[in-house]
Structure formats: C-alpha cells, structure tokens
Amino acid sequence: xxxxxxxxxxxxxxxxxxxxxxxxxxxxxxxxxxxxxxxxxxxxxxxxxxxxxxxxxxxxxxxxxxxxxxxxxxxxxxxxxxxxxxxxxxxxxxxxxxxxxxxxxxxxxxxxxxxxxxxxxxxxxxxxxxxxxxxxxxxxxxxxxxxxxxxxxxxxxxxxxxxxxxxxxxxxxxxxxxxxxxxxxxxxxxxxxxxxxxxxxxxxxxxxxxxxxxxxxxxxxxxxxxxxxxxxxxxxxxxxxxxxxxxxxxxxxxxxxxxxxxxxxxxxxxxxxxxxxxxxxxxxxxxxxxxxxxxxxxxxxxxxxxxxxxxxxxxxxxxxxxxxxxxxxxxxxxxxxxxxxxxxxxxxxxxxxxxxxxxxxxx
Amino acid sequence: xxxxxxxxxxxxxxxxxxxxxxxxxxxxxxxxxxxxxxxxxxxxxxxxxxxxxxxxxxxxxxxxxxxxxxxxxxxxxxxxxxxxxxxxxxxxxxxxxxxxxxxxxxxxxxxxxxxxxxxxxxxxxxxxxxxxxxxxxxxxxxxxxxxx
Lengths: 363, 148
Hints:
The structure holds two protein chains of two kinds.
Chain A: H1 2-35, E1 39-44, E2 48-52, E3 55-66, E4 72-82, E5 87-98, E6 102-113, H2 114-121, H3 126-129, E7 132-144, E8 149-161, E9 165-170, E10 174-178, E11 182-192, E12 199-208, E13 211-221, E14 225-234, H4 236-244, E15 247-257, E16 260-270, E17 275-281, E18 286-292, E19 299-309, E20 312-323, E21 328-334, E22 343-350, E23 356-362
Antiparallel strand pairs in A: 1-3, 2-3, 3-6, 4-5, 4-7, 7-8, 9-11, 10-11, 11-14, 12-13, 12-15, 13-14, 15-16, 17-18, 18-21, 19-20, 19-22, 22-23
Chain B: H1 4-31, H2 39-62, H3 66-87, E1 92-96, E2 100-105, H4 107-118, H5 120-147
Antiparallel strand pairs in B: 1-2
Helix pairs in contact in B: 1-2, 2-3, 3-4, 3-5
C-alpha cells in the first residue's frame, strides 16, 4: 500500500513538474518572439481619405509582422479625440487576427462624423471654420499567447484640426453691369481642407438695412485654394437705391458641403457710383446736382436732360465727363432751352457699366 | 548541525523570492516610468508573504515530526500562493515607455500558476502522510521496547 502511494506521489510530482515546464515553455516562446522582434509593427504608412456618407475616414495603413509562435487575435483599435473642453470624436474598429508566419497590412480607420459635429455645433459650427488643437488617445488591444494574455498599448498624440473651410476672403465688387437688372461680381478666395474633394455650391442673399436686395450663387472646387467670382443679382426694386447709396451689404448664405448647409455671413462695403445724389433747379434756369463716385471704378458719365411741356418732349441736351473713384462732382448746368417747360427728366448713364439712373423734376 | 541545511535554503529563498524580484522592479522603475505600482506598494506584500513562506518552509524542513511538517508545508504553500499573486502584480503590469503605455493583462496565466500551486497541496499531503505512517511505525516498536 505504502509502495503504491509512493509511486503515485512520484507520478503526480512528475506530471506536475511537466505541467510547470509546459507553462514556462509557453511563456518563454512568447517572450522570445518579442525579444528577437519576430512580432513587431513593420511600417505605418501614409494616411489616405475615404468617404462614407457624412463621414470622412482617415485610414492609416499599418503593417504588422507575426513570425512568432502564436496567433495575434482580437486586434482592436480604440480612439478618443478631445479638444481642451470636450470629447470631439471617438470610435473603435475591430481589425481581426494575424496568424503566425504572416505579415499583414491593414487600415486603421479613424472616422470623423461631420453630421455629429454639425448637430452639436450648429449654428456656430466652430470646427467647420476654425482650427483647433486635438488630443488623441489611441489604444491598440490584442490577445496573444493562446488568448492567455491581453496586451493594450496606449498612445497619446496631439495634432491640429484642419477645418473643412480653412479660410474665406471676399474683395470689393467689380464688373458692375446694368441692363434690365443690376448685377456685379464679387471676387472671392476660399481654402478648403485637402481631405475634401468634389465641388460645393454657395447660395445666398444680399442684405442691407435689414432688407433683401438680391441673391447669388456659385460653385467651387473642394480640397484646394480656390479663386472665383460670385455673380450677384440685385432686385430691380433695390437697384436704383443702391446706385445712389453706399452701405455695408451682407452676404448671407450657405455652403453645401458634405451634404450639409454650412451657414456663412460676410459683409462688404458697397460703394455707390452716384453716392448721395442731390439735385435742384434754381429760379435762374440752372440745374444743380452733386454726387460722389464711391464705386471702386471710374465713371464715363453721360448726363442727358430731357425737357417736357404738357407731356411732350420739347428739347434735350447732354453732357459728357469722366469721374474718378472717390471724386466728388458738383455741377451747375444752364438749362439750354428757350421754350416753356414744366418737367425735366435727368438721365445719368454710365457708358462702361451701362447703368442708367433717371430722376424727374416737376417744375 | 541539522539546522544548517534548512538555514542555507532559507537564505537562498530570501534572495530568490524577495531580494531578486524587488531589485528587478527597482531596475525596471529606472528605465521605464513605472510598472503600475510603486516600489513600496509592490515590495511590501512580497516581503511579508515571502518571509512567512521562508519561515514555514524552514520549520517544515527543520522539524522531524511529519505531522508538523504537513501543517507547516500547508501554511508555506498558502503563503507561496499569496506571494505569487502579488509577485505577478495581481495579473496586470503596465510599462510606460516614452511614446506609449503598454498594459499587459495576464490574469488567466496567473490563475494557471495558482492552480499549479494548489495542485502541490495533495502532493505535500500524500508525501507527509506516507512519512507519518513510517514515523508512527518506527515509534511503535520503540514504545513497545520501552514497555517490555
């Protein structure tokens, strides 16, 4: 009996020792794989951008070599990106497994959901227009050594947030034209983030003194520094008022980008060509008028005076002169007519732009 | 004279089970920012459980009576179990490198180690049970000789 028990103890001891050796061997093989760099990150490639609805996905290609003794399983990436005050983006991605004796390249996707940012930040949309410093925490987790060990690698990284609309600038209106309506072009520059592509639409209204004066639309190429001109149409009701009144005008509109309407507002100074126009007919038969060319372009003025008596035209005369930008014009013109008149129509016509402005003076 | 061998073994164990792990952690702390625990926090349970283990293993080896040996061995194994739990830092180790923090969770592995230690209880029990039987048999003739 004692002998049998002795043999049993011996056998038990041997089995236990073998189990210990087995466990230690498993650990040593794993340690060896890391020590001789059989398991390592070979390369982190250049990120590339893909789109998925309202999401921009920045893919970072990562190549991992696994020549070790065990499969890498449950490879997962978690990321949390914050700015100074709040959480900005977070997400996770399950990469999968890398079997032993293989080199695998996979893309680590970091999804920026603009819909979420849009909803959270509307109407300010700070991150659509402004740069920010972001603090990213990346966590790579994986199982190794027959799933007995979980490894989690945490990395912190600070980077600059580049907004979709990096900068915008508008210049004074140019190419003012007028035939049946008044229209002009506003040169603009817009720099959109390089991760964008395709085109965007800009639509909006021109407002001044709280009233709508006109509208505009244009399209632009995304992902680059774009220079263009916005064609602005002024309503016929506002047309005459704007010829004689300088004022700040607001461009209130939306940029359609990534499926969203991003509101924007820009103010520019409208310089009227016949700014502050005043006129008067003196008793001695002299017409007085004055105005300032507040427009950024010179004027080739053709001022025609048409004289009426009882509804019929009885005569006309005209004068031609040039006005430089910023120049103040004050004219005293003798009414060159001997017949009786009861009404004068003054037509200010600018030959370059084609704008025409009429005033009627009843005597 | 009989205490020399257990004493030498105890010194060896002191070096292996207490001094070496603490020196290792101290070395690690110098090269990496920390292991998830401070040296003091890590060392204290190792010293406590290690010293108790060494003491009971000494008593186990020093004592003649297998009954006491069995008891001391049981206590020593329990201490070894606790010592292992703390030595392996409760199944988690964190190494902070310059650019990244690496956390290794090996709780299943720790459990395997603990199971392997638990499996030493029956081995120890059986061994000392056998010795106890021999010890009792040896004692019986001595007692009967004394009676006659």
